[in-house]
Design a protein that fits this description.
Ribosomal RNA small subunit methyltransferase E; rRNA (uridine-N3-)-methyltransferase activity; Alpha/beta knot; 33% helix; 257 residues; alpha/beta; rRNA processing; Alpha/beta_knot_MTases; elongated; RsmE; Ribosomal Protein L25, Chain P; 7-stranded parallel sheet; binds S-adenosylmethionine; 5-stranded antiparallel sheet
């Protein structure tokens, strides 16, 4: 259950009507039964349902360590269908943020309600995967605008491109992991960022994947200008909904190792 800061009063959680319904009617919990709540920003609690089933009593905080050791942003040129599943599965794989992209060959123009729906899917998936952080789904951006924010000033950037002979993402990730940033290697770099006053930027990766028709030459060119490295995910052409999940799996496999 994800609770907003306004719902916490000392050691009590004021449950919303929807949460009361979910706990009492859907999960059939009784007063005294325990459930887990999270704030979506790293804090988890074991909570007991109160006598009137309208509140929860915090019993203890829970230490969980389910986050990737780096921040991963997925910039996904919106496929015609299937983005619900990508949001769910990318959340399971540890993504920190998803930026839906309007590219030259995308056709989807999602309503604000659709974006709210993707955010709810991310929340449910984060609960299911016991994530500490609920990924943020941003409003869609056109590719050139997205590059203003997600570029090499704040992350190591990769753009997935089928067919051409680019280095494999796995090779590039291993290079990034082993590269000596400030002389200490990526793990030292990471611990420096966790100091109370980080002296260095957080180690982060941005991964961009194209739509069904692929990126255009000019979209690739502006990305490369912004510091993106084109990478391959292998010799087979993956669907626009498969490529991001393969990319995220590779990132997790390299940085969790
Ligand atoms: N005809 C398109 C092309 O040649 O670019 C195919 C696009 S593919 C269905 C959708 C997106 O998934 C691509 O734009 C790319 O970002 C990613 N993708 C699919 N297979 C890939 C691969 N083997 N290597 C890298 N990226 C891939």
């Amino acid at each position: 259950l994800v609770v907003a800061p306004g719902q916490m009063a000392g050691n009590q959680v004021d449950l919303t009507p929807a949460q009361q319904h979910y706990l009492s009617r859907v999960l059939r919990l009784r007063p005294g039964d325990r459930f887990i709540a999270m704030d979506g920003h790293g804090q988890w609690w074991l909570v007991a349902l109160t006598e009137n089933a309208a509140q929860g009593q915090v019993l203890t905080t829970i230490a969980v360590a389910t986050e990737l050791p780096i921040t991963v942003t997925l910039l996904i040129a919106m496929p015609k269908t299937g983005l619900d599943d990508v949001v769910r599965q990318a959340t399971e794989l540890g993504v920190s943020q998803i930026v839906p992209i309007h590219s030259a060959r995308t056709v989807l123009n999602p309503s604000p309600q659709k974006i709210d729906r993707w955010q709810r899917i991310a929340q449910e998936a984060a609960e299911q995967s016991e994530r500490q952080v609920v990924p943020v789904i941003t409003a869609p951006l056109v590719w050139s605008d997205a590059l203003q924010t997600w570029n090499t000033r704040q992350s190591i950037c990769y753009i997935c491109q089928a067919r051409d002979h680019h280095p494999h993402l796995l090779t590039c990730l291993e290079e990034a992991r082993n590269q000596r940033l400030g002389g200490g290697g990526w793990k030292d770099e990471l611990s420096a960022t966790q100091a109370p006053q980080p002296s260095r930027p957080i180690l982060a990766i941005s991964l961009a994947t194209g739509p069904e028709g692929g990126w255009t030459e000019s979209e690739l060119a502006v990305a490369i200008d912004a510091g993106y490295q084109p990478v391959s995910l292998g010799d087979r052409i993956l669907r626009a909904v498969t490529a991001p999940l393969v990319g995220l799996s590779l990132i997790a496999s390299v940085f969790e190792a």
